[in-house]
Design goal:
Elements: H1 3-20, E1 27-35, E2 40-49, E3 52-64, E4 67-73, H2 79-85, E5 93-94
Parallel strand pairs: 4-5
Antiparallel strand pairs: 1-2, 2-3, 3-4
Amino acid sequence: MDKLDRYREIARRVVEGYAREKPSRGEIASYPVVDPVGDHYMAVLAGWDRHRRVQGPVVHLDIIGGKFWVQYDGTDRPVARELEAAGVPKEDIVLAEQPAEVRPLTGYGVG
């Protein structure tokens, strides 16, 4: 399996893992969105918590230029660490939610 195929498989497994975690309250569905053609991967929530609408990403990853770009991480279990645990080297993880000038200070890839 080449690197890109392996990263796609890791992305799928990671977002499916986050999507399996159900919110502790409300009528909220959690599900993965996997686009291996465009290399976009998300775990999203949709539903209601009492009278409040809940909708949006929990985690959003893209694979760009052979690296993981963490576009959004709304978890208490950092997705970058999950990627590392799956065997992705730090230099192949870009914290895209951080400004470009801050990325060199994160210990992860810069883009």
